Amino acid sequence: xxxxxxxxxxxxxxxxxxxxxxxxxxxxxxxxxxxxxxxxxxxxxxxxxxxxxxxxxxxxxxxxxxxxxxxxxxxxxxxxxxxxxxxxxxxxxxxxxxxxxxxxxxxxxxxxxxxxxxxxxxxxxxxxxxxxxxxxxxxxxxxxxxxxxxxxxxxxxxxxxxxxxxxxxxxxxxxxxxxxxxxxxxxxxxxxxxxxxxxxxxxxxxxxxxxxxxxxxxxxxxxxx
Length: 225
Known about the structure:
The chain is α/β, with parallel strands linked by helices and 225 residues long.
């Protein structure tokens, strides 16, 4: 199963007026990271709100030098094509992306969606469900996360998602397999009641002796003839 863990940063929270300023994606296949990522800053063509700036630290000056979503959407859509999409509070991120696509006259995303916020509320009802809290729960290092960033948050969420899907069970299965192999090694060796007949013919023995004799007196094989 190919899945894309993704996140967006925006100019604000209103999908009708605010715009995407950053997209980050991490690819996993069968819950294993492939190393493939997609990351892009976008020029929103409108100011970043003060509240959003405090979260992600992306300034109007910095974003003004980046390509617009219109220029990068084809590469983004190509990267996520056919994959299940996984995001924390996916409703917001998908709505922002679909609004950007609608402005370009493009149909909304049809990918299967997994919302890890809804998933954690179901699996961990008595826990905090922020990304930081989940990373703390699973002992995932967040020391690089001084501000929100789409790619970094996607990398962290990928680790959380694997844990939510039982990723650590792979290690348990390997340990169980190793234990089973060790038990098999201690079983007594079963002997045949009657030995199998040899497939070596008299002609083979004569030919072998002649070959060993041709190796000279110092050949160690002469000790086994």
